[in-house]
């Protein structure tokens, strides 16, 4: 374990953020790393519990007490080896994971949990700095070929695992750069895109081929996929949700993903004609999730006049509620670094109309406050509260309402069945669609989720593809308890 009395001696320390007035002037990451001495102390807080609930809190089954112990011992290279044995890309999760593991940490019952996510980031960054992360091409090739469609975390994890098994892997991506939502959804200030490039360079050196600007089913015939022995569909769940609200087509009502993607492209020197800007505007972000938070951070960097956030659900409690006891993921108020940069947050509010001037330009939003009526056995019912109608001046409304599911093109053209939620149908743990050599993983299979789940699904799907192609697999897997088999 870390240090027997570590959790009694040391408090949890998190990375600080650079001051708001500095960080809103740029699009770079703004965390202030802890010293090596401090991170070592943080690792020593781990109690190495008899049953480490953090293992099952992490969808990857990361071996958390083991790498915490190595950090405490100053054995950083061993910590990196342990971490990479279950997680292909800890530099993504170490920055962006909501860390369900920390909510399942036993120390968290009585104290602040171990800062697992930050320890993870420090391990992988140290490993890159020391040059420990090197390409590991397979010693032999099987002669089998696999196409991976989509280069988000699911596609990249599947590709790396399949390549390690000796298969020849090609990743197709319709965007002009690799990374999926990590590239053009998540803003640069949350994760600098060089972090993706650094990892993709390793994957290329291991022998994986990447083809960008290839939209399978659009500018690349799906029939060509028949040239491959197996296919893994990792196209994400990017069908955007809208609102059935009058005025939705107004000039000034913009989908969050368009707003975020444009800004990241501009950061990397691309010219965007008529880029949507929040500068000097009254901005209203509709939707209280991660995407909404990213729009708030970006609007403040543009220099918005005001930023307001609407959420139709009630304000979650400030602390873990009895409905989600430890070690479950708690329904609890989240305040992100972007929220701290300036926003007025409103809950239980519904947009009734996007008001425009005579030229169709957005000028205001009309809203009404709501409440949810809960009747056991029935779906919650939205009730509008009379007399709470309000008009908000607004020049830019950003729709951050999430996604309804995956796009249909690949399913339609390949004949893949979909489930009741419109996701590509493939049983959890098997990942095989109704077409035997076609597999599905990540958001495309489970719906909009998290990076850590995408990596987990990519890894597990790769193992199933390997079994399909070779009759067996030496690739690692996690069993239902989250323990790992085969590493
Ligand atoms: C704004 C935003 C912020 C988020 N923030 C976080 C966060 O902080 N933490 C977190 O854990 N999760 C976050 N998420 C969720 C997370 O990004 C996703 O769950 C994750 O990226 C899913 O990975 P994936 O590989 O399944 O799909 P994606 O990342 O969506 O990648 C799918 C890729 O497939 C490509 N593609 C689709 N169809 C085709 C085709 N026919 N041919 C070729 N390519 C195709 C797409 O262009 C895309 O690049 C966020 C999501 C958004 C939108
Ligand atoms: S990947 Fe996420 S859940 Fe897993 S150990 Fe890291 S921070 Fe925790």
TrEMBL record:
* Entry's transmembrane regions: none
- Start and end of every FAD/NAD(P)-binding domain? 145-458
Oxidoreductase found in the keyword field: yes
Q: Has the keyword Amino-acid biosynthesis been applied to this entry? A: yes
Please give one Pfam family short name: Pyr_redox_2
InterPro entries reported in the protein's UniProt record: DPD_II (IPR028261), FAD/NAD-bd_sf (IPR036188), FAD/NAD-binding_dom (IPR023753), Glut_synth_ssu1 (IPR006005), Glutamate_Synthase (IPR051394), Helical_ferredxn (IPR009051)
Gene Ontology molecular function: iron-sulfur cluster binding; oxidoreductase activity, acting on the CH-NH2 group of donors, NAD or NADP as acceptor
Pathway, per record: Amino-acid biosynthesis
Q: What's in the keyword line of the UniProt record?
A: Amino-acid biosynthesis, Glutamate biosynthesis, Oxidoreductase
Q: Which GO terms describe its biological process?
A: glutamate biosynthetic process
Q: Which residues form the Dihydroprymidine dehydrogenase domain?
A: 23-131
PANTHER family per UniProt: GLUTAMATE SYNTHASE [NADPH] SMALL CHAIN
Q: This protein is called what?
A: Glutamate synthase subunit beta
Which source organism does the UniProt entry give? Seonamhaeicola maritimus
Recall the taxonomic lineage recorded for the source organism. Answer: Bacteria, Pseudomonadati, Bacteroidota, Flavobacteriia, Flavobacteriales
